[in-house]
Predict the structure.
Amino acid sequence: MSHLASTKSRKYNVGLVQMHMGPDPKANLAAALNHIREAARLGANVVCLPELFQAQYFCQREDIRLFDLAEAIPGPGTAAIGEVARETRTVVIASLFERRAAGLYHNTAVTFHTDGNIASVYRKMHIPDDPLYYEKFYFTPGDRGFQAVDTAFGRIGTLVCWDQWYPEGARLTALQGAEALFYPTAIGWHPAEKAEFGAAQYDAWQTIQRAHAIANGVYVMGVNRVGHEQGDVLGNRVEGPGLEFWGGSFVADPFGRIIAKASHDAEEVLIAEIDPALLEDTRRNWPFLRDRRIDAYGGVTQRFLDPDPLLAELK
């Protein structure tokens, strides 16, 4: 059987879970497990949950007590999710607050095989520090690199939220053979900025990920949460306006076309088809990987290419 014939024979469906988060982590986990079951009923083979779905977005403040939300991997959360992956015979991607050791925590995406076993553990590489997004207080940058993993349905890669703004992460994951990139996400509007900047912010978020799809000839999935949150966790909440998570989860095909998109204000399970034959055809017609000048990209590993030779010596 030719490679093209084999790709035509293995289309599969992805399910993106766009959900609200309440103040009770146990209730959020139970809701997420039910959303996985719903996605499977709708025909999903690979299901992805939003970033840090077990809690409201707690990084709106720096509070040492919130490290109590973290858990070991493997641990109770992975056991519960793995059981539902096995029950539904789906591949599941779940974003967890990982306690690796005392004082060492990561923002981690775990991929589960259809038998419930862990397929891969990806630790978020790029960690933001912005107003109401104080992630550097909680998370150590990932040290496992960018990863692609074979599943029962295809070879996929997972990155997390702030990673989605960096073309290097998408490229390095695609170069490992990933045909679909998943980005569990928690991104929203500061309410005071929404009227002036909201549409442009969402457009930029979607555009950068569509560009990853085009540049690499892969499917890209942005999986966001939805709803207004004050970071109400463990009986504590942030004073002030909070964040309005903008939803808008979507799937882009290998030419950057939006083939499925969720609303900005409601829970949804978004289903879309992954067709490896379309990836093959797109790359044949737009052979960006063929024409890359890998001999000329050494500067990308430097922080900045300063034109002043004296300053360059001071780096």
Summary: Confidence is low (pLDDT under 50) at residues 1-5. The helical segments are 3-8, 25-41, 76-88, 167-174, 191-216, 276-285, 309-313. The domain at 3-313 is CATH 3.60.110.10 (Nitrilase/N-carbamoyl-D-aminoacid amidohydrolase).
